[in-house]
Amino acid sequence: MPADDTAPVAGGFAWGSPHAPWGVGEGAGVGPAPAIAGLALRSRAGGAVRRASAAGGAARGPSDPRTPRSSGLRRLYEQARRTWDRPLTGYYLILGSSLLITALGLVMVYSASMIKALELSLPASYFFRKQFVAAVLGTGLLLLASRMPVKLHRALAYPLLMGTVFLMVLVQIPGIGHAVNGNQNWIYLGGPFQLQPSEFGKLALILWGADLLARKQDRRLLTQWKHMLVPLVPVAFLLLGLIMLGGDMGTAIILTAILFGLLWLAGAPTRLFAGVLAIASLVGVMLIKTNENRMSRLFCVGAIDLGPQGECWQAVHGIYALASGGWFGSGLGASVEKWGQLPEPHTDFIFAIAGEELGLAGTLSVLALFAALGYAGIRVAGRTEDPFVRYAAGGVTTWITAQAVVNIGAVLGLLPIAGVPLPLFSYGGSALLPTMFAVGLLIAFAREEPAAKAALAMRRPGVRWKTMRRRVKKRPSGER
Questions:
Q1: pLDDT at residue 266 greater than cutoff 50
Q2: Residue 196: closest CA among 432, 440, 474, 411
Q3: Which is nearest to 131 in space by CA: 471, 434, 431, 395?
Q4: Packing angle, helices 197-218 and 232-245, rounded to 10
Q5: Can you spell out the DSSP letters for 257-276?
Q6: Looking at residue 304, what is its pLDDT?
Q7: Are 273 and 279 in contact (CB under 8 A)?
Q8: What is the pTM assigned to this prediction?
Q9: Mean pLDDT value across the chain
């Protein structure tokens, strides 16, 4: 039996059949028919998929991870994570947080020092103007340090250390050194300007110690404990001895923290680290017990009354200032404690005045800025391959964070009053200048990361113009 052209094929119709759909018969062309059939099948399949998707969407509840709300939160999280992992994140965190701390510190120095200046028969803006000049000079040092190559930083290590030791020796010579609040750590430069060399000793120890440890690591000598300790620890003890001759135990504590930070970064074993810590603690206890003023400060930790002879006056009034600030403070310039009640309102206890005038929101903002600066420093130290950069960045981060913790802890009544300023925030040009130079170090190290260097290079106008010019296709000579 011959094959019938109209016979169904696999449940359908053969092409060219009079029973074929859409009126396709024997006389019709067979070209458009498959295309039309394909369109119909795709249309039916798409409708089925859309109906299934609608049914599935109705079946899913609000807690399903595929809902728009959850996907939006996930996109925000992924975007924040990508932003946080960008090469220039550390660079912008260091630059932004340090400048914000310095700017807010200038405002608080002006507010906290007005009454003190008037008490001394000085203009109300006297201390602010001096701090502003120091901030301008410090900004120049920051920019200079941020543009200097790493080799030049290493070359400055030994001259800076020798110059600092020389100045610290001069401080102890009668007639040259000057005592302030019982601590002989100052040298007059003429007029209203004076210098505290021990503040530059922190920077000198970091640069010199980082260069020393980096050279020893290149020679694979840090596996021996004697090369790890000598001559780093003896030189640090020399600086500590010169500082303690002047009676400044607060600066000595910060210098000890820097030494421990360098040893930790160098990979000191636990026994060695614990031994040095035990010796330092023993010496510290002896120095505290032999000084009545230091013992009284230790007893004032957590105090809520002034004491029989007013020993805890400063600590208690610092708590009063913080407690009266509330959530958002009494407003700039409206502090009550700075009117002769709280000693050193613009230096050691400026954080208390900030809490009184800016409230809890202001103090938490300051803490967040210091946390961002500390995190960025750790990020720079952890991402570099250069041992000098790792030691120097870790030392600077240890310095700033340790000093901030000691100062804020004393204001909160959690630690003894050590008499150290809040970095970048308190009044004092001798403390501000080396600290801003150290921040410039961190910025320079953040710029030296390979990914950050490439990202900064792409943002230069010349590089961007060349890149855009390469993307433009050349037109034929006759085309306009």
A1: yes
A2: 432
A3: 431
A4: 170
A5: HHHHHHHHHTT--HHHHHHH
A6: 85
A7: no
A8: 0.80
A9: 83
